[in-house]
Amino acid sequence: MSVAFVKEPNEDQVEVLPDRELGSDPNLVTPRGLELIDREIAALEKQLEEARAAADKLAIATINRDLRYWQARHATAEVVVPPDSVATVHFGSRVAIEREDGRRQLFQIVGIDEADPAEGLISYISPLARSLIGKEVGDVVKAGASDAEIVEILPDSAEAALS
User: Fold this and answer.
1) How do strand 140-143 and strand 146-154 relate by DSSP bridges?
2) Which residue, 153, 27, 148, is CA-closest to 90?
3) pTM: predicted TM-score of the whole model, two decimal places
4) Is residue 16 part of a domain?
5) In angstroms, rounded to a whole number, what is the distance separating the alpha carbons of residues 5 and 8?
6) What's the domain range around 58?
7) What is the rounded average pLDDT for all residues in the chain?
8) Residue 126 domain-assigned?
9) Running along the chain, 163 residues long, what does each successive block of 10 average in pLDDT?
10) What pLDDT, in 10s, does the model give residues 31-56?
11) How many structural domains does the chain have?
């Protein structure tokens, strides 16, 4: 058999990692979201320096892939500064809803990469955010398997404590 058809392991060779999916939706971000992207890039650049110093080829490949992702997200970011108006729900709004069982929850509508539902940050492309955008206090929206009423709309910078 020809040597050309034998794949010998090479410790200096690292498989090329496929790029992370960027998605096809617009990359809307809040000002905070853009800051988080910048922090992620800075952290990855530091990790890359450390991986290069340690000659860790796998870490270098992984970090480079992640760095390409975050640099692309930064380059395509469309910062949306929410209006001060709280008449209707929009990107960046904090929205308090009351569910049928009496639970009150506060969500902020943010960009895809900024979303963290456990922290009340929901992506603008999520079903809940889509049902909230354009609505007003008193409107009832679909929230999961049940309905919920919008009880308060706050601007992006507002802090609200739910009782």
Assistant:
1) antiparallel
2) 153
3) 0.78
4) no
5) 9
6) 25-79
7) 85
8) yes
9) 51 66 85 94 96 93 94 95 83 93 93 92 95 94 90 68 33
10) 999 999 999 999 999 999 999 999 99
11) 2
